[in-house]
Design a protein that fits this description.
The protein is α/β, with parallel strands linked by helices and about 240 residues long. It folds into 2 domains: about 5-120; about 130-235, 3-Layer(aba) Sandwich (Rossmann fold), CATH 3.40.50. It contains 13 helices and 8 strands. The strands form 2 sheets. A 4-stranded parallel β-sheet has the order 2-1-3-4, with helices on both faces. α12 (about 210-220) links the parallel β7 (about 205) and β8. The longest helix is centred in the C-terminal third of the chain and has 18 residues, at about 185-200. The two termini are about 35 Å apart. The mean pLDDT is about 95.
């Protein structure tokens, strides 16, 4: 019996790095999965939620819940957005007529590596990559979804030279609007993360959230460092 999932592509990927969405589809199809794309999807509402604009965030949450089919899994190339759906929406939808529909969706909404490894048990996609890489675990993926081993298992299976990142679980300093409101603190955190990445000697740092990778990649470019920040899906799918 073939599996079908819905792709929740997320705003940042759709607007700024659609190649990640394409790579996500390729990986899922490689695993024998049919991918549907609900075209009505928009933002999950996390930016509005984080600054206290809950009415706007609630409207986006309502739209998100109505857009996706609770009978099918939802897969996204973003731990942060999945964390919003799972852990932010209860505050917005408690007592709401859509609450039960949200609950059914939340139970089957996953970040990409989480779905492949933890749900389907796929740790090797038959992909082989050369060169050296390191990996930065984003905070929401790690702390809110509890995803620690899945990305690394996929990386190691690809036979690349994997260089573990020192202080890997330390935040990169992005935190969405945190990097805007607390620029100096965010910059200091980013500097520490860049030093850790440099120490590995790897020319590529992988991650599962484009938001963190944009922040890290910007810092690497400003320092003139020949290190590329790349989403795990792009790297695995060979999208450079």
């Amino acid at each position: 019996m073939s599996l079908t999932v819905q792709l929740f592509v997320t705003c940042l990927v759709d607007w700024l790095r659609p190649e990640i969405g394409i790579a996500t589809v390729r990986l899922l199809e490689r695993a024998g999965i049919t991918v549907r794309f609900p075209e009505a999807q928009t933002c999950c509402g996390q930016p509005a939620f984080n600054v206290g604009r809950w009415e706007e965030a609630r409207a986006m949450a309502e739209h998100w819940v109505r857009t996706f089919d609770p009978e099918l899994p939802v897969v996204a190339p973003s731990g942060s957005c999945v964390a919003m759906v799972r852990h932010g929406y209860p505050a917005l939808l408690e007592g709401h007529p859509l609450y039960d529909r949200w609950k059914a969706l939340a139970e089957r909404t996953y970040e990409l590596s989480q779905y492949l490894v933890e749900v389907l048990g796929i740790t090797d996609l038959g992909i082989r990559r050369e060169g050296a890489v390191t990996y930065h675990p984003s905070c929401h993926l790690l702390r809110m979804l509890g995803v620690r081993e899945a990305p690394e298992r996929l990386i190691r299976a690809a036979d690349a030279a994997y260089h573990p990142l020192p202080e890997a679980e330390t935040c990169c300093g992005f935190g969405g609007l945190f990097s805007v409101h607390f620029e100096e603190i965010s910059g200091a955190m980013l500097q520490r993360k860049i030093q850790a990445i440099r120490s590995t000697g790897a020319p590529i740092v992988l991650g599962c959230d484009w938001s963190c990778l944009m922040h890290i990649g910007g810092g690497l470019r400003r320092h003139g460092l020949p290190i590329q920040a790349m989403h795990l899906a792009e790297w695995l799918a060979g999208e450079r």
